[in-house]
Amino acid sequence: MATHEPVLTAARSESLGLAATQNFLGNSPDGYKLTIAAFLVLNPVALATVGPYYTGWMLVIEFIFTLAMALKCYPLQPGGLLAIEAVVLGLASPLTVYSETEAAFEVILLLIFMVAGIFFLKDLLLFTFTKLLLGIRSKVLLSLTFSATAAALSAFLDALTVTAVIITVMHGFYAVYHRAASGLREDDDDDLTSDSRIEPLQREDLARFRAFLRSLAMHAAVGTALGGVTTLVGEPQNVLIGTVAGWEFAEFFVRMLPVAAPVFLVGLLTCALLERFRLFGYGAALPERVRAVLERFEKGQAERRTTENTMALAAQALVVLFLVASLVLQLAKVGIVGLAVIVLATALTGITEERRLGRAFEEALPFTALLVVFFAIVAVIEEQHLFAPIAAWVLALPDAMQPTMFFLANGVLSAISDNVFVATVYIGEVQAALDQGLIDRALFDRLAIAINTGTNLPSVATPNGQAAFLFLLTSALAPLLRLSYARMVVMALPYTVTMTVTGLLAVRYWL
Predict the structure, then answer these.
(1) What span, in angstroms and rounded, lies between the C-alpha atoms of 292 and 51?
(2) Per-residue b or e along 253-289, where b marks 16 or more CB atoms closer than 10 Å to that residue's CB
(3) 3-state secondary structure 443-461
(4) Angle of helix 364-383 relative to helix 76-88, nearest 10 degrees?
(5) How far is CA 158 from CA 89, 120, 155, 232, 365, in A?
(6) 98, 504 contact by CB (below 8 A)
(7) Half-sphere exposure at residue 194, Cβ-oriented, CA atoms within 13 angstroms
């Protein structure tokens, strides 16, 4: 018996080690697990050898890697491990992480409550956008409509709210066809992540439908940037920049117009050309069999619509009017308006069960947690002054060159990290330069415009550049549409080039 004991102990140890390895990051590929483990081992070594500045940059790149691999593993866990290690190593203090989170409390409330509020308006949204999708047969015109609508909504609402609408609508379209292609009834539960029930011919239609929805989602996501740059409420950093500059809603809009207007027109032109010539993954048309399913769904919904259903749609329409009016008139912070939307939409449509209420928060809360982890990485950037040398270099340039270089620098750094943080850092640097008499008020205004447009427009290059893009990437919709980080970068590339070049020329010659 004693002879076998070491063998049994070794086998048990091997079993425990295997179990621990399998539990680490769950079903992620082994190569991905090894990469994250290597990051966690290398960071302390780098801190001891090359110092905190370069280790900070390593950590930023590692975190971006976790975002890029979002479809392999949700970034919250690997990114969270990197953030915890950063605090343990002293690259960022818990107080700074809390401070960054507290500063973004308005955005966090927006995610928690507004996204859930949009969930309770999905019947009206699906009804409206189904009419739109089935009524416009030209893919070019449909894409332009989605992009322009997203831009207009983002200008008066905010990009995250509009993205939540996009996700809700696209998810609804996908669910309708996937359920029909799986041979299920409309009220049957359907695992949207599994195609096991779908026949080969319908699989081909499903693949084309995915491409169709992907292109519309990306056009609309870029549209949120085209419109979000123009007003105080369009993006979170706009409020910050406008407050520091002392610009009210109308003045902010007028000052952004010389850059925002040509970029908007070029953005729509880019949209039309991408669809017309089927470039960079765009151009997929709605398959006729899918159209037939959606038409049957719309007809069936109309036939089964009761008086109660009609009144529910009317109530949701009134809530939408309340939402738009509240945000345009800035009656309250966006997150508080979202909470009011939840209360009104559920009270007026008979949704009172806790279980049904809880489902609305499933989409937003994982992303909210990820955003707080992101603020930990931002704390590293702040405490290690990773961007400070660039600001000092730009401010040392001749006055005529500074707006152009601020636009480029803010664009590149926003794509690498986050546009809200970049705007926060650089508007602070410019304000300090004004207070010290290094620049005059006229140059300050030009630099503030360059910072706002620079953080809003070139940042579409990557999903982590804009919160709206990151929200789309980490949503439940992205894996259904096969919308990975790399695919988003490729599909955003033509927009990045045309919008950046146009914005750069506008800043150089029109400011």
Answers:
(1) 62
(2) bebbeebbebbbebbbebbeebbeeeebbbbbbbbeb
(3) HHHHHHHHHHHHHHCHHHH
(4) 30
(5) 37, 18, 7, 9, 19
(6) no
(7) 6
pLDDT for residue 196 is more than 90:
no
Q: Can you give the pLDDT at residue 431?
A: 86
Residue type, 195: D
- What are the tokens at 378? 């931002």
Q: Is the pLDDT of residue 11 over 80?
A: no
Structure tokens at 406: 């601020």
Contacts of 409 (CB under 8 A, 6+ apart): 390, 391, 394, 426, 454
CB distance 457 to 238 below 8 Å: no
Query: Distance between CA 38 and CA 452 in Å, rounded?
Result: 37
Q: Determine the residue type at 489.
A: V
C-alpha 504, offset from chain centre: 24
Judge whether residue 193 has pLDDT over 70.
Answer: yes
- Average pLDDT across the chain, whole number: 87
3-state secondary structure of 357: helix
**Cα atoms in the Cβ-side hemisphere of radius 13 Å centred on 367:** 26
Rounded to the nearest angstrom, the gap between the alpha carbon of residue 199 and the centroid of all alpha carbons in its chain is 33
Per-residue pLDDT band for 461 (boundaries 50, 70, 90) equals very high
pLDDT of the residue at 337: 86
Locate all alpha helices (DSSP H) within 182-287, ordered by sequence: 200-228, 236-245, 249-277
Sequence-separated (6 or more) residues with CB below 8 Å from residue 180 = 293, 296, 297
Each residue of 226-248: pLDDT tens digit?
999 998 777 877 877 888 888 88
Name residue 215's amino acid: S
Both structure tokens of 340 = 């009011």
Query: What is the number of other CB atoms lying within 10 angstroms of the CB of residue 229?
Result: 28
Distance from C-alpha of 499 to C-alpha of 495, rounded to nearest angstrom = 6
- Of 143, 142, 148, 157, which Cα lies nearest the Cα of 323? 157
pLDDT for residue 454 is more than 90 = yes
One-letter identity of residue 462: T
Domain boundaries, the chain: 29-91, 105-234+249-365
Structure tokens, 353:
């069960």
Q: Per-residue pLDDT for 10 more than 60?
A: no
- Token pair for 185: 């009834």
Q: What distances in angstroms separate CA 393 from CA 98, 212, 359, 410, 439, one per listed residue?
A: 30, 45, 49, 13, 14
Whole-angstrom distance, CA of residue 208 vs CA of residue 216: 13
